[in-house]
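name: query_chain
kind: protein
chains: 1
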Amino acid sequence: MAERGGPVRVVLVDDHPVVRAGLRALVDGQDGIEVVGEASDLGGAEHVVTAQHPDVVLMDLNLGDGPGGVEVTARLRALPDAPNVLVLTTYDTEADVLRALDAGAVGYLLKDAPADQLFAGIRATARGETVLAPSVAARLVRRAASPGPVVTEREVEVLELLATGLGNRELARELLVSEATVKSHLAHIYTKLGVDTRAGAVAAAIERRIIRPGG
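structure:
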């Protein structure tokens, strides 16, 4: 980790080279911040983090066909002298946010954040402080304050599979449960979302930003 008074050492993890180049140009050389490496996938991230010992990893969630940013975050956080992870993504659904934070991310910002907010977020993340985009913070506050029943992580998984058009038999196969259990999950989801059809459940989940369009 950087010595007290030294620059915050940052690694960029994003599968798009143009995005990484843009972030490097934006972040590198800012007062007290230094980009020390880049990666596009899990293997590259583990390698560069082990070699460079950054203070902060800027992590995208969608990393192409391999493990996503949530899994990469969990793996990096399990390393010795683990860096703090700041998610920087276009996705702000409840499922994405909760999974990233559960995996060990310290903060969660969106790619449309103002540059000053990003720089401040990197510095705060290096100090171990929680950094949340305003829309993300508001969503978590609403979730915590909601008097109604909260959709569970398992029910989110069901909703994401529903959005891909799977029937009950396929859902049961994917979830490794019985069709009766699938029907029970669906009944609870319908009640919580105030709907009575599969299509209505998916539409409500997308509208409330519980899941992404398309699952």
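note: The mean pLDDT is 90.
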